[in-house]
Amino acid sequence: MASLKAPSLSLKHTAFCQTKSLTSFQTFPQCKIPIKTTRTTNLKAINTSIKASISSSASTKHPASDAKPGRVQELYVYELNERDRGSPAYLRLSQKEVNSLGDLVPFSNKVYHGNLEKRLGITSGICILIQHVPEKNGDRYEAIFSFYFGDYGHISVQGPYLTYEDTYLAVTGGSGIFEGVTGQVKLHQIVFPFKIFYTFYLKGIPDLPQELLGTPVVTSPEVEPTPAAKAAEPHAALKNYTD
Fold first, then answer.
1. Are 145 and 130 in contact (CB under 8 A)?
2. What span, in angstroms and rounded, lies between the C-alpha atoms of 114 and 112?
3. Which helix (H) or strand (E) holds 52?
4. Element (H or E) spanning 34, and its range?
5. Spans of biased composition, class Low complexity (predicted)?
6. Which pLDDT value is given to residue 27?
7. Are residues 46 and 52 in contact, defined by beta-carbon separation less than 8 angstroms?
8. Which of 14, 165, 201, 216 is deepest in the core (most CB within 10 A)?
9. Is the Cα torsion angle 8, 14, 19, 21 positive or negative in sign?
10. What pLDDT, on a 0 to 100 scale, did the predictor assign at position 52?
């Protein structure tokens, strides 16, 4: 009978290096298991991503470009009530015969270029009666309203509106080419509430388009728009003006 010999013991493990004996499992001097350190790599990737994000954000900002800090541009506008819009509407919430605190006056009138040769759009807003002033035969209102200039956008204003004297209102913002605008506007009463002249002092926006610029007609109770502007003929009105 052939002699039986014990087979030699060979230990292999996928997670360890092969060794000569069981005792050699205690240490692995000849086995080097590569360990990848990803922290540094990850930090570099994050930093690169942040820089790219900042760069992308900066490149998509609207250039403050053409707006020159501190520069004031003047814009001249006539607001005319031609009695064809049902404006103003007096809401006597005080239920008193005399104009009193709380009465509301929504209004909307036509707006023309200062030279009265071009229809610009409309005003739209509301006046809140603050005080009746009998000695002046008038009233003090808080006014909140906007001027609409067709495709160019709009300007919003707020402040005191006195029926008996000139006032200054704050320019509170705008849209289109007037986005980010600040400044003030002088309200000059010519014939209340039918003819009012405004001088805007605008800051924080690029140069106004040429068709909004020009020398205004001298104010007087007789001022009237040109027939072409009144009819809003294409050459005498802003593109897509609000009616």
1. no
2. 6
3. helix 39-60
4. none
5. 223-237
6. 44
7. no
8. 216
9. negative
10. 52
Tokens of 59: 């490149």
H or E stretch at 160? strand 154-162
Spatial neighbors of 15 by CB under 8 A, at least 6 apart, are: none
Residue among 125, 128, 132 nearest 142 (CA): 128
Mean pLDDT of successive 10-residue stretches along the chain, which has 243 residues = 45 42 43 49 55 46 58 98 96 96 98 99 99 97 99 99 98 98 98 98 98 98 98 98 96
pLDDT at 69: 72
Q: Which tokens is 166 given?
A: 């000139």
Sign of torsion over alpha carbons 139, 145, 148, 152 = positive
Specify the pTM: 0.73
* pLDDT value, residue 61: 41
Q: Give the DSSP letter of residue 49.
A: H
Q: Which amino acid is present at 159? A: G
Total Cβ atoms within 10 A of residue 223: 17
Decide: 221 and 191 in contact? Cβ < 8 Å: yes
Which stretches does DSSP call E strand in 14-118? 73-80, 104-107, 110-113
Name all domains of the chain by residue range, CATH numbers in brackets.
Answer: 73-206+220-236 (2.40.480.10)
Cα Rg of the chain (Å, integer)? 38
- What is the structure's pLDDT at 7? 46
HEC states along 93-118? CCCCCCCCCCCEEEECCEEEECCCCC
